[in-house]
Amino acid sequence: MDCLLPEVFDALRSGHAADMRMVRPPADMGRTRPRATGKAVYGRDLPFHVDGQNFTVQWTDPGVDAARAADILVQLEAAWTTLVAEGGWPAPTSSDTWLLWVILDPELGGSGYTTVYATDEYPDGYPVTYLNPSYDAENPAFALSVAVHEFGHMLQYRLRDWELGRADAWYWEATSEWIAERVAPDLDTYAESTFWYAQWPHARFDATERYHPYGMVLVNAWLDERAFGFDGVRDVWLAADGNDRAWDALLAEQAGDDFGGIVAAMAAEVAARTLREGALYEAPVREAEHSTAPVWETRALPGLYGSYFIDVGEGAIVVEGQVHAAFVQDGALLDAAPAEGAYTAVLTAYGEEGELGYGTTPPADAEEEPGEAPVACGCASVGAPAGGAVWVGLAGAVGAAARRRRLPRGRGAT
Predict the structure, then answer these.
(1) Pick from 184, 117, 120, 172: which is nearest to 147 by CA?
(2) Kindly report the CA angle at 179 between 178 and 185, in degrees rounded to 5?
């Protein structure tokens, strides 16, 4: 996936872009083409087009495969049915009267993007999507997934102000990737985006560098499966309508947990591969690997709500610092580090400064009288502790989250 949404946000804010279509519509957009029945086209047609009930897919390059364009249209109409007609997502701006424009351009600098154009009729802008049909051309499923991803952005512009800028884009991308999975679950190309989390799991949760927002689709996978269902993902966006509240606060409110605990539980299940399609997800890189538990190691905290994955071959560790700690052994989530056998410790930061430590003997304990064991908390809550030392297993927390899951509104639980 190489959606150019952050670049679109920058362009809309500045008025300048390498691809000026991000801010200025094609010249022919301005006249309307009526239809005998149904929605009309808001603008004059490009040389080639195919229309559906809610979308018009158009292109100028005669080399574009018309059959691929038709497949994209079918997938988009299916997305409309799933999300708008049945799923309760508010329809994109302008789509009550006009077909939504989707323009195919094989020279596009990425896989696709969705922008908005302001008119007197739509002063806040109406959405238009650009797709690159030649991007990963050997994989037809990819083009369909990108089309649904971009339709997700069309829906999002109705609810969220792009002027919040690039830093807001992480959850736009994470949601659109999950929308692609829920609309077209057989495609599974969304799972490829987990690579961008797996390579930099220690990055701050809202980082936009190195395609990290796509990898954060894992947050929605966990929330959908363990917390509030797909309708809850929609409800987070409805709660964002017309305000600039931060995504971490909105997600925590909807899920009934602190956001750090949500990400920590997600990271633990990614390590354990216990999510529904966990076997498809890229394994996160390891911050460290120890054949036996070290006496004591210290590291700077990862970025806020970022995680370190640390492999230990043998021996229990304790953890200190502003982190949620989870332990995974043979695909099982444990409440504490096991004394025997190899396991992975997943350490997720809920603070922004300082360091964490882990090992068998914290420095303060080294001066205690022999026989005094280190004190450790066996808590199972995903809530952030008040501070200081923490030994927090998330196995109980994941089970508790599943037990308190409420049925999604709308079509019922899925």
Answers:
(1) 184
(2) 80
